[in-house]
Structures are given as C-alpha cells and as structure tokens.
Amino acid sequence: MRMNRTMKYVSSKLVKTKVLLQNPALITNVPRTAGLTSDRLLNMLNRYKMVYIKPVCGSLGIGVIRVEQKGAQYRYREEMNTYTFRTFQQMYLSIQRRIGSKPYLVQKGIVMLKHNNRPFDFRVMVQRNDKGIWECTGVAARLAHPKRAVTNGSQGGTIYAAEEILSKVADITKAQNLVKKMKEIGLKTANQFGTSYPAMNELGLDIAVDRDLRLWILEVNTRPDPCPFTKLSDSSMIETIVKYAKEYGRVYELKCNKAKKSAPTSKL
C-alpha cells in the first residue's frame, strides 16, 4: 500500500486489515476477513460454523451481527434478538433486508474466553509519547452484556483489569504473559500503521483470546474511545492516555455512561 503522509484516521476495516497483513509477524493474529457476499458468507460458515458480519465503516459495535450454522439450521443475532432459518438463502435474504446497501464484511468468528457464559475481549491502547515514539498506554478487559453478542462498553459491557479477568481462566504467570503479548502486538501494529500513515498518533486494538489462549486482532481503531479505562480502579492508564493525547492535540470527552465498572469484590 502507498504511504499517506497526512492521513490520521482510516475508517475502512478492510483497508486496515490489509495494513495488518503487510506485517508477516501479525498475519497469524488476523482472522480471515473479506467483503460480504452470499458465497463468501456461506463458504466461511461451512468452514468456521460461526462468523461475524460488520459494517465496513462503523464503530461502537453498532450493526455487528453474529451468524451461525447449527446442524441444518442457520441463525443470526443482532443486538438482543436472534433469528432462526431453515435455509441459508432465507437467512441471507433477511440479513440483506436488515443491512440494505451499506457495505459489510464477513470475519471468521473467534470463540472467546467467557465468564458466566459472557465473552470478553481486550482494548489495547497504543499512542505516540511526548518523544513521538509508540508506547502501549493501557490494556483493559471488556465483558459483554448478558444479552448482547458484542463486548463494547457502549453496548453495556463491564470493564475489568486485564490480568484480573485472565487470572480466572489461567494461572497468574500465563495471564501476565498474555497481557505482555497483547502489548507486543499493539506495538507491532502501531509501527506497521505508522509506516503507512506517519501522521497517526493513536490506535485502539480490540484483541480476543480464544480457548487455546491464542490472540486475535478483531479490529484496529484509528480514532479510539478511551472510555473503558475510566472504569478501572487504577487511574494511571487513563491519566497517561489523556496526557499523551493532549501532546498531539486530541482532547477526549470521556462520557462513559453505558459501560459498567466491575465491582471491587466481584468473583469471576
């Protein structure tokens, strides 16, 4: 891809996927992603049994649909509603009516780690520091709302410290190593995007961990919302995030009413 020296934001998830795939060290962390067509959706469902379709340009988990093949049935879940069909064709027509002409992509579904049957993933914040060097400034876990397929705080998710929630499914050493790997992936991603778009100053990665403890980059946000970090008991991350953002001219609103803060005494 050609370098763009002035662009700070990229809205297309397909373009951002292409940037990731330029780095050989990141390829194994990128789930298969392609523009949505009937044939691609069917082929990926046959292969993976569960996929997500997302607006090519979108944020906050709005418009994300989980699609599954269960035996001879097909179903999809959008927001709090699940729709079941006898044939793929019936389901695809329903999806088409729902999304209209808006461009969508289809992405391999990652079976995330769960707590109380609620999936969780991680937001990894990477920013240029006051010396212009990429630095990982925060990692936070997002536990999905009980009735939703997405983990976003803006969709009612609950925010946890990363190692806290991971230590419930792995020993503390593995939990620490996973967070370390997330930070490494964040920095590799930032350096790759920084090569293609030198004017970029911040990225927010959505990273999932599957049941084999493998890490997957679900999405890269070039104008990330740092709201999850306001819900952590440790305020050092959000303080650093806000400080660095001011250095490169961004001021966050930090209106985070829908995301929930985990209870200090909660047991996962």
UniProtKB/TrEMBL annotation:
Keywords: ATP-binding, Nucleotide-binding. It comes from the Bacteria. The keyword Metal-binding does not apply. GO terms for molecular function: ATP binding; metal ion binding. Residues 22-246 form the ATP-grasp domain. The keyword Nucleotide-binding applies. This is ATP-grasp domain-containing protein. The lineage of its organism: Bacteria, Bacillati, Bacillota, Bacilli, Bacillales.
